Amino acid sequence: MSAPTVSATRQRQVVTMKITHFNADGMPKYTNRLINETSPYLRQHAHNPVDWY
User: For the whole prediction, is pTM greater than 0.90?
Assistant: First the structure.
């Protein structure tokens, strides 16, 4: 039995739905207050488009 394949249409839908938090030049679109935290775990979320306060 072979594994099911994903149709080309479905692949395009998935790629289209992908959200990016970076500009075309690779710079983050957003920077929230977590950028000021000392925790590496919190800082990794500093460019998520969420206001944490």
Answer: no
| Token pair recorded at residue 33 | 């207050």
Domain range annotation of the chain: 21-53
CB 35 within 8 A of CB 45: no
Give the side-chain half-sphere CA count within 13 A for 35: 10
Q: Is there a contact between 33 and 53 (Cβ–Cβ < 8 Å)?
A: yes
* In the predicted structure, residue 16 carries a pLDDT above the cut 60: no
C-alpha–C-alpha distance, residues 37 and 47, integer Å: 13
Q: How is residue 50 written in tokens?
A: 């969420």
